[in-house]
Write a structure and sequence with these properties.
alpha+beta; OB fold (Dihydrolipoamide Acetyltransferase, E2P); Dihydrolipoamide Transferase; Chloramphenicol Acetyltransferase; 7-stranded mixed β-sheet; 4-stranded antiparallel β-sheet; 8 helices; elongated
């Protein structure tokens, strides 16, 4: 009996997704709650678990297909019997399969038959490597073959020297043949193109960024920050910080706290426009841009005005890890009243970030580099960083944007202000 696998609830207001990848193929053994497919939504990738243990059956959607919540995308066959067609066996193989997990007959060199029972995973490896299971010693229960047994046999066969061939007349000398290229060599003047379908996440990012440009009256203002004090504080306390909190002291905590402090003086930066009304928030939820395999995602740090340095660093590290694993939850991507994007980790010197609607401002961080600056009439080298604040000029005036960056600059150049709330 087959069990249907349906698209799970994806989150508020999200009704469909795209099939990003099949993690299991027809005939594969599947454990209960083991992921069989990855779905791409407008925000994150979501893994679809198997509701039961069994064997992967029919795949009812292809990679790239759009599927609705509740749609059946696959079946799981119970009892280890696969509904999918079995792969054809090469004529040279001594195995004659009846089905995954069923008894098959293998003949040795003398022609004696012996019955073997192979699991789907073991059977697949036997077929891939053209092995004779009757010649492999099983270490599983009742002498059954395990995956490790078959893989070890395959490696042993690869390592074994090829049998000596019968002597043959020496051929006439010929030039050594070069390995065949994966693609045909490019001819002079030839021009090639490759078309790759945009992921659902990339399509959504593109659409939202263009909407932001079309809707908001965007403007960017800049300032630079002497990072000497932050670097000194970080160098002095990073070991004690990591020993006490179990997380490294990075730069983001300084910037998040400085932004929260500056927003208290310039609340419009943390506000948004809703129709003909301005919505002010007495809290600050910061969307932090982190890198994921399919592009940047922006999970949200909630109530940063109440968070300590260790809380911020732990949350950001967790977001970064789960973004790479594709395990961020939908609700963690929603909301946010302000965004911080750190292009400096990729080497960016300067940029004009785009607002993440319905937010009204986004802060861009950049790389730290030593530059000549004037201090007390002397030209000295200092570790400097450019800050960029892109903002919606419909809500935020130039004076407010500049004041916000100045407040951040003051706090970062004298981190004591973060402790005594100045």
């Amino acid at each position: 009996m087959a069990t249907e696998v349906k698209v799970p609830v994806l989150g508020e207001s999200i009704t469909e997704a795209s099939v990003g990848q099949w993690l299991k193929q027809p005939g594969d053994a599947v454990a209960q709650d083991e992921p069989i497919a990855s779905l791409e939504t407008d925000k994150v990738a979501i893994e679809v678990p198997s509701p039961v243990a069994g064997t992967m059956g029919e795949q009812r959607a292809k990679v790239g297909d759009t599927v609705a919540v509740g749609a059946v995308i696959a079946t799981i066959e119970a009892g280890g019997a696969a509904a999918a067609a079995k792969p054809e066996l090469p004529a040279s193989s001594p195995v004659n399969p009846k089905g995954p997990g069923e008894t098959i007959e293998a003949k040795d060199d003398e022609g004696d038959g012996s019955n073997l029972t192979l699991s789907p995973a073991v059977r697949r490896i036997v077929l891939e490597h053209h092995l004779d299971p009757s010649k492999i010693k099983g270490t599983g229960k009742d002498g059954r073959l395990t995956k490790d047994d078959v893989l070890a046999a395959a490696e042993s066969e690869k390592a074994a020297p090829a049998p000596a061939a019968a002597p043959a007349p020496a051929p006439a000398p010929a030039p050594a043949a070069s390995p065949a290229p994966t693609l045909a060599p490019r001819q002079p003047g030839e021009r090639r193109e490759e078309r790759v379908r945009m992921t659902r996440l990339r399509q959504t990012v593109a659409r939202r960024l263009k909407e932001a440009q079309n809707t908001a009256a965007m403007l960017t203002t800049f300032n630079d920050v002497d990072m000497s004090a932050v670097l000194e504080a970080r160098g002095k306390y990073k070991d004690l910080f990591e020993k006490k909190h179990g997380i490294r002291l990075g730069f983001m905590a300084f910037f998040v706290k400085a932004a929260a402090l500056a927003a208290r003086d310039v609340p419009a930066v943390n506000a948004s426009i809703d129709g003909e009304e301005i919505v002010y928030h007495d809290y600050m939820d910061v969307s932090v841009a982190v890198s994921a395999p399919n592009g940047l995602v922006v999970p949200v740090l909630r109530d940063v005005q109440d968070m300590g340095f260790a809380d911020i660093e732990k949350a950001i590290a967790d977001f970064g890890k789960r973004a790479k694993d594709g395990t961020l939850k939908m609700e963690e991507m929603q909301g946010g009243t302000f965004t911080i994007s750190n292009g400096g980790v990729f080497g960016s010197l300067l940029s004009t970030p785009i607002i993440n609607p319905p937010q009204s401002a986004v802060l861009g961080m950049h790389r730290i580099e030593e530059r000549p600056v004037v201090r007390d009439g002397q030209i000295v080298a200092r570790p400097m960083m450019y800050l960029a604040l892109s903002y919606d000029h419909r809500l935020i005036d130039g004076r407010e944007a500049v004041t916000f960056l100045v407040r951040m600059k003051e706090a970062l150049e004298d981190p004591t202000r973060l402790l005594i709330d100045l």
